Amino acid sequence: MNTMDIVTVTNLSKRYGDFVAVNGITFSIHRGEIFGFLGPNGAGKTTTINIMIGLARPSGGSILINGINAVKNVKKAQSIMGIVPDESNLYDEMNGFENLCFCGSLYGMEKAAREKKAKELLEQFDLTKAGKRLFKAYSKGMRRKLTIAAGIIHEPEILFLDEPTTGIDVESARQIRQLLLNLKQSGTTIFITTHYIEDAERICDRISFIVGGKIVANGTVPELMESVSHGHTIRLATDQDMKPYTEEIQERFPGCTVKIDTDRTLTLICKERIALSPVLQYLDGKGISVFEAKELRPSLEDVFVRVTGVEATKLKKEKEKGGMAK
Amino acid sequence: MKTWIAFWNILKKDIHNYYLKPPNISWGIIFPLSWTLMQLIRSSGGVNLSDIREMLPGLMAMSVLFGTTSMLAVTITFERKGRSFDRLLLAPISLSTMVAAKLSGAILFGLLNAFVPVIFAAFFVDLAGINWGSVLLAVLLIAVTSTLLGLVIAVSAKEVFEAQTFSNFFRFPMLFLCGLFLPISSLPVFLRPLSYLLPLTYGTDLLNGAILGVSLLSPVLCILILLAFTGGLFAYCQYNIRRKWIL
Q1: Which listed CATH number (3.40.30.10, 3.30.70.1560, 3.40.50.300, 3.40.228.10) goes with A230-296?
Q2: Yes or no: is domain A5-226 CATH 3.40.50.300?
Q3: Taking CB atoms and an 8 Å cutoff, what residues of chain B touch A95?
Q4: Would the CB atoms of A78 and B13 count as touching at under 8 Å?
């Protein structure tokens, strides 16, 4: 185990009869990073997280969390974990403050300590006024925030979050992303599964893509983007129809592929980075004005679509439907 | 210490969230009272308050049985359905501690239920001469074994209505098989062995001995059998929880 790794998962597998939910996956999580675990529905994300937190037993493989064998010493490993499930599963009959205090007590926190921390968290999560309200009266966004607060009341070293921003309003989702970044800054390691590619792109340091129980790609966000990038792509917006110039431009810049997306847009796909000035000079010589020049980079969504074969928008819509139904 | 904090707060949460709710308090009082009155009316064809003492062991055993099994099976199934039960499974406390905390709420509820007929009876008949220490021990052992039966049901049920159905499947035959209101000797011969497979039979016999001074078996034997049931059911529940709840 690398000393910078807080989690090392090796050859992890889970079978339900003949069905293989997780098929020999291996990955590690660095201390203090936000690690994203992405994949389409039924890819094995929840099964993996359930095994890591001790809600399911693996069929094979090992999990080390902070040096603890999390398969054999589940309870010891759970003492340093914070867990935020995909559904807000606090107690409807208790208010926000009571819920947080109860969750603290499960980790052995003394009354004074858990009450102090609960008050701090309510303030930090902008829920002070709602603290005395019953959990069942909370909005979805508030429920989500309180569930995250409950997951960190005992100041865990690693926080597991399953779909933290699913089915909540834009403002609450933004607040949650900011809270996660703040937690990361304070040294907490975060393992997150999400269907929202843009969330992962914004906050994750490293990402693994899982499809059919297997990890198909992993790395930092730039590394993953680089893996699907085919050279440098530059798009120029001009004031004239570019179709008549296509062949000539292609001849002058043989290292690039020229594409005309719309009448007045020219795209150059080059194997290597090229200087723009010769292109601009050529166009200027033809009396063509360039209003905008932009380097196009592949997004994480492109990576997702490439490695999973699932369209990200379709996936997001499905999940939103599920979130609204809850 | 940390384990104790978790244990106490799970128990406190259950009492606050479930057992102290008005429907359960009223159930805990009205149900034993109704049965007491019903038994009084049907005995000797009319109300005869002096019969209360004779009926007390059966009424107490029944109150504990219904109080414990109805609540635990339903609350656990309810929490599992809402997934709040996962919080307890994910807490860094042993499964035994968590299960013991959940059981304790139901046991306390059962103990309180048991004394509703006693309080009622105290207004009408002289309860002197009762061995209250033995009564308390008997009620406690009935509460523990009945609660564990409730847990067996909770582990098997996925829906609240399933838990209620399974509970009744167990409870109503026990009213007739365990000597609560009908002596075991009056049961058909082929049913009698079944009576001795049920823990409530031994608890009721202990109560009969403590309240009426009449029992079929030695109190020590009953206590040992009830302790054996407690250990066996606890181990079985833990095994089943590990098998069914941690997949």
Answers
A1: 3.30.70.1560
A2: yes
A3: none
A4: no
